[in-house]
Structures are given as structure tokens and as C-alpha cells.
Amino acid sequence: MFGFQDIIKFLWAFFLIFPVVIIIHLLGHITFAAIFGAKGIRVTLGSGKSLFSFWKIDVHQFYFWSGDCQFEYVAFNNRFSKSVILLGGSIFNLLSMLLVNLLIWFDLFEPSIFSYQFIYFSFYYVFFALLPMDYPGGGHSDGKALYRLWRKGERGVSSVDCQYKY
């Protein structure tokens, strides 16, 4: 039965763990973008009214909903670098899942509802990032951007998570 404690666990997961998963995903995109010489990197966490900004990060009212990163220029502008940037978010999510599982395996981290929810939301985020699909808001997944890049050879690739401006 779904009780009061389950509601607290759900809120904990939705408002704290899921945003961490989103941040890890965005960190993957911007890390690889920076490796390939991206300039003008900005990160937006959430949607709605802007709450505050610090450094190159904007945090919005619905911080738990989504994320976005933008950059204006990539020094190594080719299909390989664009592909790695697009896959960067999922790579970081998969690596974080592996890290949590290894920490549990070596008894450095206790298995808990936190680790379960983290793995669950990470898998969820990777699945929907790589599934080649259009999103209702007009954007598309990283998987769809990869498909368009390799199948159709588009120069300007964008996704809901990362908007590339070449």
C-alpha cells in the first residue's frame, strides 16, 4: 500500500535525486563540448521563471523538470566530435550508475532507496535521451540528433539537452 512515507520518498526522489541525474547528464555534454573546444558554454537547470544565476548556470523555478546547455562554437566541428558531445550526457549517466554500483559492491556505500532511485532515474534519463524521438515542445532527443547527424549529415545539430549554435 502506498502510504505517507512513500509520498516522502517520492518527493525526495523527484525534487532532489532526479535533478542530480539531470545535472550529471548536462555535465557530460558540457565536459565533452569543452574538450572539443566549445566556447560560450551556458547551462540552464529547469524551466519557468528564473530563480537565480551563478557563474554560467541559470536555475529556474521548475529545476527538477529538465536541463539545457548551449554553446556557440566548437573548435573541432565534425561528426565525431558532435556525436561524442551528444552522447556525453548518457555516458556520464552510465558512468555514475556504474560508480554507485561499484561503491555498493565494495561495501563503501550502503544499498538504499537513494541508490535505487538514483539508478532508476539515471536509466530512465539515458533511455529517453537515446531513444530517437521528437519531443512535444519542438526539440528532439540526443538519439534523434545522432540519427539526423549520421543519416542526413546535418551541420546544425540540436537536442532538448544541448543546443548547438554553429
Describe this structure in words.
By secondary structure, the protein is of the alpha/beta class. It has a domain at 4-37 and 75-154. It is 53% helix and 13% strand. It contains four helices and five strands. Strands 2-3-1-4-5 form a five-stranded mixed β-sheet, with helices on one face. A hairpin with a 2-residue loop joins β2 and β3.
Shape: globular
Class by SSE composition: alpha/beta
Which stretches are low in confidence, meaning pLDDT under 50 for 5 or more residues running? Answer: none
The whole-number mean of residue pLDDT values reads: 85
Give the strand tally. 5
The number of helices is: 4
Euclidean distance between termini CA atoms: 52 Å
Largest sheet: 5 strands, mixed
Task: Estimate the strand proportion.
Answer: 5-15%
| CA-atom Rg in angstroms | 17 Å
Strand order of the largest sheet: 2-3-1-4-5
Helicity level, as a percent range? Answer: 40-55%
- SSE run: HEEEEHHHE
SSE map:
Layout: H1 4-35, E1 42-45, E2 50-54, E3 57-60, E4 67-71, H2 79-105, H3 113-130, H4 142-152, E5 162-164
Parallel strand pairs: 1-3, 4-5
Antiparallel strand pairs: 1-4, 2-3
Summarize, please.
By secondary structure, the protein is α/β, with parallel strands linked by helices. Helix content is 53%, strand content 13%. The protein has a domain of 114 residues.
Provide keyphrases for this structure.
alpha/beta; five-stranded mixed β-sheet; 166 residues; 13% strand
